[in-house]
Amino acid sequence: MGRQELLEYLLKEVEKFGFSVFADEMFPIPAIVNTDDKIMIYSSIEVTPFEIAHELIHIINKDNHRGKYFDAINPQEVRANHEAILLLWEIFEANGGSYEYFNVFVNTTNAPFELAESIIKNEYLELHEAITEIFEDEIKVSINKQEMHDYIVDYISYFDVIESVNIYQFLDRYHLSHNFYNMAEIEFQQLLGAD
Fold first, then answer.
1. Comparison of pLDDT for 145 and 67, the residue scoring more
2. What is the rounded CA–CA span in Å between residue 63 and residue 108?
3. Where are the beta strands (DSSP E) in 43-134?
4. Residue 15 pLDDT > 90, yes or no?
5. In contact, 151 and 176? CB cutoff 8 Å
6. What's the rounded Cα separation, in Å, for the pair 43 and 26?
7. Are 181 and 167 contacting, i.e. CB atoms less than 8 angstroms apart?
């Protein structure tokens, strides 16, 4: 999704909340909303997807006491920045984006680089930790000796002659944890008659 397409999408999202949206080339700031009167005004020249997403978050959260434009110590502004980046990232990923293309994300959305990097990196670390936790639970799943035997019989049936076996390749082929190395090694030795 390109920058203009993203802008149009976000503006339609604002309208879905019943807001009247006005573009003005001369408007002195990129965008602002009044949640009480359900009005959004934006500069058609200076607005960016990040700023529209930021205002959309104010709409979603019904913020009406925000203080000055981009007040860094106002909790509503801080939350709007954070959630706007997450919203834009969700849209980016839904359209095929990934962390490998982080610079494309920043260029398309005009999100503040350092803030976006810290938020997205943190999200990725949390996701990585969750995946690791799931994987560790998978490792803990016990595999009985008969299942290992059946995997090994299937594996060796692909070979005419077996001179040596790479147990790690076997485990990878059957998506088994390397924690099962010793069990597999013993079973291979018994099946192949090796000492």
1. 145
2. 26
3. none
4. yes
5. yes
6. 7
7. yes
Question: In whole angstroms, what is the distance from residue 89 CA to residue 99 CA?
Answer: 10
Q: What are phi and psi of 157, to 5 degrees?
A: -70, -15
pTM, entire model: 0.64
Integer CA distances (angstroms), 119 to 61, 158, 181, in order: 19, 48, 39
Residue 179 is given by DSSP the state G
CA distance 113 to 105: 10
Whether the Cβ atoms of residue 41 and residue 24 lie closer than 8 Å to each other = yes
Contact status, residue 80 vs residue 54, Cβ threshold 8 Å:
yes
β-pairing verdict for 31-34 and 20-23: unpaired
Token couple for 5: 């397409």
**Residue 21: helix, strand or coil by DSSP?**
strand
Q: What is the residue type of 116?
A: A
